[in-house]
Amino acid sequence: MSGFLIPDWPAPPQVRTLVTTRQGGVSGGPYASLNLGDHVGDDPAAVAANRAILRRELPVEPAWLRQVHGVQCVEAAVAAPGCDADASVAFAPGSVCAVLTADCLPVLFCDVGGTAVAAAHAGWRGLAAGVLEKSALALRRPPGEVMAWLGPAIGPTAFEVGDEVRAAFVAHDAAAAKAFAPHGAGKWLCDLYELARQRLADVGVRRVSGGGFCTVTERERFYSYRRDGATGRMASLIWLDRTV
Predict the structure, then answer these.
(1) CATH number, position 83
(2) Burial class of residue 142 (count of CB atoms within 10 Å of its CB; 0-12, 13-18, 19+)
């Protein structure tokens, strides 16, 4: 279907992925058109129709989460629908891990053997708190066998933050300072992609692909909360294919 992205990374063939854009759905107004978020003020019937469009591309209904900018990673096969978590993991076919974003960073994980997958939602708070590290470790595989793909997020020329955000990362690791460029008094431009790579490297995950998107500047392609306020949500999904 047009409007979907397929991550370009060296994942095994049984690892399947899909990332939606804002294109290809039925929502109108600021949510046009493939809004998958049921918590943003869009018509519930339109959201249901959009999720039905997505569902046709998937083996099962995704394990939708109630994302709370935390570090909880749940097992998709047994998680209660809509549970509070910001990541999910799966170890067998029959589950689809999914996160919703509109500027925050979605990260997809798998192992080189194609036996485990995960999806994580990383805004700056979750990233600072360790959601990516926790998600990578949740795969229960040696870090050297884990790979990650960084999906569409607010880019380093668009993400202005205050001193407190920079301080939160630098307090954890002084090397994080390289991810912040001065942008006026008490303001910085923050590179979420660089911070994600640093955090993953901290736990031994160095097979990292993706990055380079910007949800703010790519207006026709992506939703952006920072740019628009009232807006939709995109999904990043990963699962194991029982047919491969």
Answers:
(1) 3.60.140.10
(2) exposed
